[in-house]
Fold this sequence. Notes:
By secondary structure, this protein is mainly β. 0% of the residues lie in helices and 47% in strands. The chain is elongated.
Amino acid sequence: MTIVASNSLTISNVNDGTITHIAYANSADGTDGFTTVYPNLNLLDGTKDFSGEWDRESWGWENDGIYKGLTVKKRRNQWGGINKTFTAPKDGIYTFSAYVKSSGNNANIHRFTEKNGTTYWDSGAHKELGNNFGWLRDSFTVTLKAGDTISARYEISGSTSDSILWTAGHKWEEGSTATPWMPSASEVKTADWPSYIGQYSDFISTASTDPAKYAPWIVFKGIDGNNGRGIVSSEQKYQLTQTSAKPVDPWDNSVWQTTQPTTTATNKYLWSITRTTFNLAPLTQDIVEQKAVYGDKGTDGDPGKVVSDTEPTTRFKGLTWKYSGTSDLTASDGTVIKPNTEYYYNGTHWMINYLSANNLEANSIKADKIDAKNLKITDGEFVSTTTNGPVTTSTEIKDNHIAISKTDGTVNTKNDLAVDTEQGFAMKFVNNSTNFTKDVAVNSQGFSISDSDGNFAQLTPQGTKLSTDVPWTDITRSSGVGTSGTLRARINNGVFYAQSKDVTIPSIAPNSLITIGTMSSKFSGVSGFDTLGLLYSLGQLSVASVTVGNDGKINIGNPNPTTMSGKVIQFSINIPLG
């Protein structure tokens, strides 16, 4: 480590085709406040302790301790979520985030958003969070215009007595990434910013969330976003030296020569460095980590390594080359070099740089193909994505769920399948051209299928429900039909039912029909049905015909040789539809 007098803190590490990951924290071991995203300032005031003007604060909210240094608000009553309105200062993308927790099996926690005074449902602004979950950081992103007002709140939508909702750390910020909670520009202090910084390099684009990977953690004080201080630039420089000793200034701003340098016994090392510059106070520190990234094997080092999209012109036994191109390349020896693959030179040919081990332990492994017996994954996840022309499929196994998705660009459709130990089984079909969707779900509550046209079917422990079901509805009686008795119809589980009991009807001549009522438009799909009924009065009983016409009319016929008068009709129709 060297101390320099300048207006920058420069943290450097070797870049030999690898990716540098940086993280920030509040403790020397990186465990307190660990984050790989540098925090933005809050655009709301009073979010640490809910001070100032908060809507609905008095409606049953109470303080309930501290979480991550933030005042926690608790509520047991339905509705009345706590929130603070944010006004967008300019056109752009903004992100809301907050901590939220719930207990109770029927709390049914929802996130609601109001934009410009009305409930806002677009851009994922509304979300169902469910029941009985621990602290989580919830967030969503929205595009706003200057002067737009927006607020987000959490609500108990269930009404059971054991429901509880906690929330803390509300935050609005610019951009599409939810960064860790911070105070507003008018409230921030030096102590609120991360105190330590750590970094490491590898070939993996995803940064690790293990603080130990970033050790050693370096004191990182004085960054004040309110005064415009923070990361301002990064640069990569190069140096070709004659020995394995770590080089000193000056560094070159660009590579090698126009062609790869030829190594000799005395000139065989190429060094590379990446510098990330922070705009800080005058006296700062420069931490430099360096190693040779190209060169012949020395007495105190390993063979060199080249990362490039062209074949090295200078080759020697043991040289390692990682091909950074995006398509297959045929090397000078005829070997087909694959993209993002590492090779070594055996003196005559390029060979894939295989690793053989009886036991291998690693935080991260990236491979094009893994063939294994008795593969066991502990506390991990499986993610696979395959693209074949316009068709993309992905499979994810994580925690207690499996998710499989297929997008077919030839027909512009998407199919999703999910299996979860708590939520059950779900399938979703989407036609992106017509926006038509179809959903199927099986869980402890039963079976359901629905589509975006409003059709649905449900099979539950309480019975079957269909979108075509119609409850018992009175049939509109024709003139002359008495008002007593029962005359009604319904559709249940795909079966049409019609009933008449003790309904007085007008006289019917022999072999004639009369209309006793007309069904509502709810029964427009019912037609052409007939059955038998009974016409009776004191001491008399006769057979009658009952028909349902295409116009929804209920007709009664008299097949008897005498006129039927002063009679009441009784019938029951149970006919499956479709």
